[in-house]
Amino acid sequence: MTTLTIGLDGANWDLIGDWLDEGRLPNLQRLIDDGIGGVSESCLPPITVPNWKCYATGKNPGKLDVFRFDRIDTAGREHVFHDATDFRSAELWDYLNDEGLTAGVINKPSTYPPKEIDGFVVAGGPDASETTYRSLDHGFATPADVETFLREELDYRVHPNPMISPTEKGDAEVEAVLDLIDTRFEAADRLLEREDPDFLHLTVFYSMALQHYFWDDEPVRRAWERIDENLGRFLDAGHDILIMSDHGTWHVDTVFYINSWLEQEGYLATERGVDELLGRVGFTKERALSAAKTLGMTETLAKVVPERVQRLVPWEEGVKRDRVLSVLDWDRTTAVASNQGPIYLAIDPSDPAYEPTRDELIRKLEALTHPETGQRIVKAVYRGEEFYEGPYAENAPDLLLDQGENVHVSDAVGPDEPIAAEGVWAGGNMPEGIFLFSGPRFRSDGLTERASITDLTPTLLHAMGAAVPTDVDGEVLDVFAPGSEPAERGVETRLPISGDRESAAGDSDAVEQRLADLGYLE
């Protein structure tokens, strides 16, 4: 018997409730009927990174030293993009290995570059990048023979082709995501048989991209039906299975352009440049990409037009991602924000103006409401170093936003009004995800529970007879069947092991572009 985790990026019960009721997801319904689970609360911000690592380590970001895909270095005036080597913690599979158990990890975000474990690691999107030294055809998995097997036997892809993005979301892009879902499950099935690990983790990631662009429309339903069909591969083999997500997804009713708000309130200033002029004459990235696709020249233009020139062209919403920093008037800027809410102050914490500025921003943001509905735009604003716990909490963003219900916080600069009815995403990230344990060792109580995403790894370790490290934030959940071995055995604890890894050299441009294409870097 292998213990399986099947991670479904951005899944939540409200999204799929009607499809379960209609009988469209029979395998998932069977797991629900036979198992125990409910809502899993993700760490803030509720996004792919850091939450897949919060699951795998059982820790909040203050113990990981990574709080988002990227961070804004206001002193250096640059974006810094993270990879797997930046996280300061051992993971679930490291502890299983230390107990003499083998593990396999497939497609979990924040695993690139892949590390050597007793088992195998297949790095996952969206962070596995393609550069001179980091090819998607090679170097995405360890050990080498597993990568060769995936490439030669399954024609395995790390990313869909064509890639879905705000400007490219037609039938071809949807089909590429659906095909990738099948490939992920096929890889898990084949490697389960080939490698026979004691534990196997699989993430389905790009279905979340469909939820971003289509919310609950047909492409998303088709993706969930494809996921459900593939779940059937594992239901009759006697495995213990955890179904979980890094966060949930809600319909976006309101877009809050936080950097436009900061500019309106006098905390952020821009130097108008080429991108504003191009926008005024209607030359936007959406129009340029549409024309290139019509002419069949997308790849050609991407190769021959320098990256620095491509970045000058604004999106229809305005200036986004690294262009935000490049158009700032830093001498007149005191605060700048990332997508989904972290705010970084361009004021040293030792400056007497630092705390009054944070107090003022907290007060203003928490009082902000929609001009028509009166809805709160932000539920709460936290000081990063106080919200997180751990040795790296002091490296957190200066302020952390908990987005209002059905609100998406975008970092785009340029919209005339900071609050809008719609933007790039139809579906945005929410903190409430899913978890569901099902199998011989678990109770059959349905969806009655609530947990933290950090509880899942301690629970899995205990279920597999392994000790729980003393530095985790999560707890072992009361989910085991009466009389089962884990229910009868007390929770054993152990000292932590180091998870530090040497940083790998490489260009982050490809990672940045992929995240931007998916809408994570607005």
From TrEMBL:
- Domain of life, source organism: Archaea
Q: What is this protein called?
A: Alkaline phosphatase family protein
InterPro entries from the UniProt entry: Alkaline_phosphatase_core_sf, Phosphodiest/P_Trfase
Region ranges (Disordered): 481-511
Check the record and name the PANTHER family matching this protein. BIS(5'-ADENOSYL)-TRIPHOSPHATASE (PTHR10151:SF120), ECTONUCLEOTIDE PYROPHOSPHATASE/PHOSPHODIESTERASE (PTHR10151)
- Residues forming coiled coils: none
List GO molecular-function terms, semicolon-separated. hydrolase activity
